[in-house]
Design a protein that fits this description.
The structure holds two protein chains of two kinds. By secondary structure, chain A is mostly helical. Chain A contains twelve helices and two strands; from the N terminus they run H-H-H-H-H-E-E-H-H-H-H-H-H-H. In chain A, a hairpin with a 5-residue loop joins strand 1 (about 150) and strand 2 (about 155-160). Chain B has one domain (about 5-395): ABC transporter involved in vitamin B12 uptake, BtuC (Orthogonal Bundle). Chain B is about 70% helix and about 0% strand. Chain B has a two-stranded antiparallel sheet.
């Protein structure tokens, strides 16, 4: 091996690690909503991926109506998704929570299955509805940043957008953690997630608390969907891969932990990018899935928990 | 407390309702006879025959999923992996070997069965040490094959370096994965991930059309397919009806309702789950084999589509989870909604999704639950939907 070969191998590795790490921020933002619903309501929302795509389409629609700079779209989009999440939880998902299922006299196994089946149904409905409205053409949020990169040295560079999203993810997840730690409703969310029955006895409106948690979850889906739309193209049926990735990140990071999402995202991102670098682009997705399966099987409590 | 159910647990279950269910048996025989002569009445190439065949296939798929989810408590959203594998193995056998129809059909069931066996294999071996030895042996075999291929390229039956490596390593990996230990959402997501991983390989495999799909030229007429599908659904329905009344069925439902309690009363939980998983894969493969002989074409996108899972979920949820009649009723509703209404509006799947959400909210017992309590008691011995602890408190 000559010095030059060695140099290029090193550059490949450095690029892979850097791209993977920035991809980690992107994955963290995709999965934080799922982690929240899982942590608070023990609900695995199988339609999470499709809500990201819904948010991306909404962003395209809003920008089509008001052609402003793309970042302004977050201003209406984020509250909109919060409201959708709140209404969805109060109107639909609260009816199949563990409580509600018990109250209806159904068996515990139904309490496990009904939420999964319902959210799976929502996933089908969302993707089909998107296809009905927008057809299957790939869409994207047009912007000037997609191809710009910051050059670190002659052969090393980093995508501006990805770096921006890494920072955005860190800020947003930090803000969410502060919100849950410091505010009144945040304390209510923590109390309900610890023991919903006792929280209800203490006078908390658990239905409302669940609604807020679900709203926050979809609020983060709005950020993530916007980010997906900015950095790549999307189609109505793109939801499931994002759900699988998000679930993987949540599992790797330790179920329901917000900081874990960040670490999990970075681990998954680096694995995928390195697999893509060394075994070709087809291996990228596969390596991610295999890592998730491995963690599910071997360490279902997460890589970073003892 | 419901005393009839208690006695059902204690007594030898096969004989409990033997005399009472006589009208049902006669009804089932009459229905079967009617379905046998339908093609002779309406004409052998009629659209009705095709619709009925589709209903039989989806009822069988529903039975296979219901066996796992409804009776076993294992919620899978990855049945499409068996469907895709069945379709592709069928297409490959026809294209490369020109095998006769029955051989092709059985093969379409056996390959998913083998794949399922691979997925549950680690659970059959109790001692972790031996399991790791098996993995080491397999890994050495894979490595040896890799070396052999570099020396003599014609030994490579996969036709592509990446596919070969990904294929063998994925299968090696899945062989070591203790899939059945996962529960609830983890199991669901794991099955989905497995389906997606296998689909990734098939979508780049030159031998299987390199993502463009393959033709399934089975050279079979609709009437044969109709009778094969009818026979399959009849045998599977009868099999499940009898099986769920045996000690095995009771043990299975005990595992579903409380895995730890079942294990501590001496039920071999892993053996039960393994058998259910294998049977489900085999039946799914046979049904999918018939489907693709009729569809005549398979692509990775159609074979491994997540839509399969949403169809099957609809079939079972609409009919009634954990009941024998559920998938049959659900399949009829499915054909009416998806194939008849759906073709008029072009939005079959959207309607199916909305209907399944509504049904789960309003009628979690499914349509089979509508026929009243007396029938429910006959169709499942241990009540699936009523929680026994509070059913007597007047709630």
């Amino acid at each position: 091996m000559t010095t030059e070969d060695f140099y290029w191998a090193l550059i490949d590795l450095a690029n892979g690690l850097m791209t993977g790490a920035t991809l980690g921020g992107y994955y963290a933002l995709i999965s934080v909503g799922l982690a929240l619903t899982f942590g608070v309501m023990k609900l695995v929302n199988l339609s999470h991926g499709d809500w990201l795509i819904v948010a991306a389409y909404l962003a395209v629609v809003i920008l089509g109506l008001y052609p402003v700079s793309p970042f302004w779209v977050l201003l209406p989009l984020v509250p909109m998704m919060f409201v959708i999440g709140y209404v969805l939880q109060r109107g639909l998902l609260n009816r199949v929570s563990t409580f509600a299922v018990e109250r209806r006299g159904l068996s515990p196994i139904m309490a496990m299955m009904l939420p999964l089946l319902i959210t799976f149904g929502i996933s089908t409905v969302l993707s089909q509805a998107l296809q009905l409205v927008f057809s299957t053409n790939a869409q994207t949020i047009r912007n000037d940043y997609s191809f710009s990169a910051i050059a670190l040295s002659q052969d090393l560079s980093i995508s501006t957008l990805r770096l921006g999203f890494l920072v955005l993810a860190a800020v947003l997840i930090g803000a969410l953690a502060l919100f849950i730690q410091r505010t009144h409703i945040g304390r209510a969310i923590r109390a309900t997630s610890d023991d919903a029955e006792i929280a209800a006895l203490m006078g908390m409106r658990t239905a409302h608390v669940y609604g807020v948690a679900s709203g926050l979850s979809l609020m983060f889906a709005a950020f993530a969907g916007f980010m997906i739309g900015m950095s790549r193209s999307f189609q109505p049926f793109d939801g499931p891969p994002y759900l699988l990735t998000a679930f993987g990140v949540v599992v790797i990071g330790g179920l329901g932990s917000l900081g874990g999402c960040f670490l999990g995202g970075i681990v998954l991102g680096i694995t995928q990018v390195l697999a893509g670098t060394y075994f070709g682009p087809a291996a990228q997705q596969l390596a991610g899935y295999l890592l998730i399966l491995l963690v599910l099987a071997a360490r279902p409590q997460g890589l970073f928990k003892r | 407390m419901d005393l009839s159910n208690l006695s059902a647990i204690g007594a030898p279950p096969v004989t409990t309702n033997a005399s009472k269910s006589a009208p049902w048996r006669i009804g089932a025989l009459v229905l079967l006879a009617a379905l046998v002569i339908v093609p002779l009445v309406v004409g052998t190439d009629s659209y009705i025959v095709h619709l009925l065949m589709t209903a039989f296939i989806f009822a069988t798929l529903g039975h296979a999923w219901n066996l796992m989810a409804g009776y076993g408590g294992m919620l899978s959203v990855g049945q499409q992996v068996f469907i895709g594998i069945a379709g592709f193995s069928e297409a490959i056998l026809i294209y490369y070997a020109a095998a006769p129809l029955v051989a092709v059909w059985i093969f379409a069931g056996l390959v998913p069965l083998a794949f399922a066996a691979l997925l549950v294999a680690p659970m059959g071996i109790r001692w972790p040490l031996r399991r790791s030895w098996a993995l080491v042996v397999f890994f050495c075999l894979v490595a040896g094959y890799e070396i052999a291929v570099t020396v003599k390229p014609e030994l490579d039956i996969f036709g592509d370096n990446f596919t070969r490596r990904a294929f063998l390593l994925l299968f090696l990996f899945l062989g070591g994965l203790p899939l059945l230990r996962l529960r609830g959402a983890h199991f669901a997501i794991a099955t989905w991930l497995i389906a997606e991983s296998v689909a990734t390989i098939f979508s780049g495999w030159p031998l299987a059309g390199a993502g463009g799909g393959m033709q399934v030229n089975a050279d079979v007429d609709l009437l044969t397919l109709y009778y094969l599908a009818l026979g399959l659904v009849a045998v599977v329905t009868l099999g499940i009806f009898l099986w769920m009344r045996s000690t095995f069925g009771l043990a299975l439902m005990a595992v579903r309702d409380d895995e730890d309690a079942a294990a501590s009363s001496g039920i071999d939980v892993m053996r039960i789950k393994m058998s259910i998983f294998l049977i489900s894969a085999f039946v799914t493969g046979l049904a999918a084999g018939l489907y693709f002989m009729d569809a005549m074409i398979i692509t990775p996108a159609s074979g491994f589509s997540i839509s399969w899972s949403s169809y099957v979920v609809f079939v079972v949820v609409a009919g009634g989870m954990g009941t024998v009649s559920g998938p049959l009723i659900g399949a009829i509703v499915f054909v009416v909604v998806d194939r008849i209404l759906g073709q008029m509006s072009g939005q079959g799947q959207l309607v199916l999704g909305l209907m399944s959400i509504a049904l789960m909210l309003l009628l979690p017992q499914g349509l089979a639950g509508l026929f009243g309590r007396s029938m429910r008691r006959r169709t499942h011995l241990i009540p699936f939907l009523r929680s026994p602890s509070i059913s007597g408190e007047g709630q």
